[in-house]
Amino acid sequence: VFDRQRGPWRTDTVRVGSDVELVFEEDVEVVAVKGGIADAWASLFEVISATNIVFRGEGSGATLRMLKDDYLKESYGGRIGHRHGINLLSAARVTIENLRIAESGGDGIYLGESYKGGLCLAGVRGIDGPCRDIVIRNCTLDRHLRQGMSVISAENLLLENCVLSNTAGAMPQSGIDFEPNFEHDKLVNCVMRNCLSLNNAGSGYEFYLGNLDRTTAPTDIRIENCRSVGSRNAILYSVRRTPGDMPKGEVRFTNCSFEDARGAAVRMFSKGGDAIRLVLDRCSIRNDCTEFDAADVLYRSDSWCERPPDGMSFLGLDIRQAKAHPWFLWDENRCLSPATVTD
Predict the structure, then answer these.
(1) Cβ distance 30 to 56 under 8 Å?
(2) CA-CA distance, 210 to 321, in Å (whole number)?
(3) Distances from the Cα of 99 to the Cα of 60, 173, 195, 226, angstroms
(4) Whole-prediction pTM value?
C-alpha cells in the first residue's frame, strides 16, 4: 500500500514480481526521484515475465509522475524515447486501473516482449511471448514524450475508459501506437472501448504494421466508441509488405468520431494489397484540415508499392465540413498500378 503522506513518494525504478497488488490511496503521488532512472532502458515500474499483478488507485485515483523535462537533457541522452511509466514485458494477467500516469521520458505504458529476461535489443528474438490478459481501465496517460501507450506484442488486451493526451517531444508522439518489432509479435484480441485520444502532437491512433508478415498470427484490433480530438491525424495506418508476404487480419473502428485533426482525419500509406484490412464502421469526421494534407481521408503510396491498395472499407462514414475540401484523395503518383475508388 502506498499510503497518503504530506508529500509524494519518491523512488527510482520499482521491479514488480508475480502475485503482487499495488494499492495507491486516493490522491497519492509517486514521483521519479531526481537524478534517478539513469539507465536509458529503465522505467518507473517494470514487470518482466511476471504474472498476477494489480496496479490500483483508490477513490478518485492516484498519480504516477516522472520528470520528462529532465530526460531531455544531454546527461540523460536527450530525446531517446525510453524511460516509460509502466513497462510490461511478457507480463500476464495484469490490471492497471484508476491511475494518472504522467510525464515519462518515453511511453505512459509499454507492452512488449521480454528478451531472455531483459529488455529488447535490436535483432534479438523474443522468447517469452506477448503480454497476455491485460486490462487497463479508467486511466489517464498524459504529457509523455513518445506515446501515451505503445503496444508491441499483446494478446487479450482491454483498454477501457482511458484518456491518452498531450503527447509531444519524440517521434511518433501519438496517443496510442500499435507497432510490432518482429514478425512473431502478436496483436490478437486487442480492444479499446470508450477512450479519448486528445491533443497529441502525432496521431490519435497509429498503426505501423510493416514488421508483420504472412507467418504472423492474424491481427485482431477493435476500437469501439472512441474519439480522437485535436491530433495531427486521427488515424495513421501503414502495412508495408511485398506481395506474397502480406499479414492477415483486421483493424476495425466502430462508432468512433474523429474531430479537429490538423491534417487528414484518416491517413493511410504503404498499404499494398489487402494486408490487414482497415474497416471504419459507422464513424464520423468533423475536420477542417487546417495545417497538413488536403482531404479528410488520404491515401499515399511510396516508391516500392507493387500493388494497388485494397482491403479498406468505409461503412456509413459521416463527414461534415465547415469549409469545402476533398473528402477522399488517392495520391498514387509513384505506384505502378492505380487504385480504384467505388461508391
Answers:
(1) no
(2) 32
(3) 9, 21, 15, 19
(4) 0.93
Neighbours of 148 (CB within 10 A): 33
Q: Please state whether beta strands 45-48 and 14-15 pair in parallel, antiparallel, or not at all (unpaired).
A: parallel
Residue 331's H or E segment, with its range, is strand 328-331
Per-residue pLDDT reduced to its tens digit, 306-329: 566 788 999 999 999 888 888 998
Number of residues written out for the chain: 343
List CB contacts of 320: < 8 A, sequence separation 6 or more. 284, 285, 286
Other beta carbons less than 10 A from residue 98's beta carbon: 19
Rounded Cα gap, residues 90 and 18, in angstroms: 12
User: Residues near 265 by Cβ (< 8 Å), separated by ≥ 6?
Assistant: 228, 233, 234, 235, 258, 285, 287, 296, 297
pLDDT in tens, 202-211: 999 999 998 9
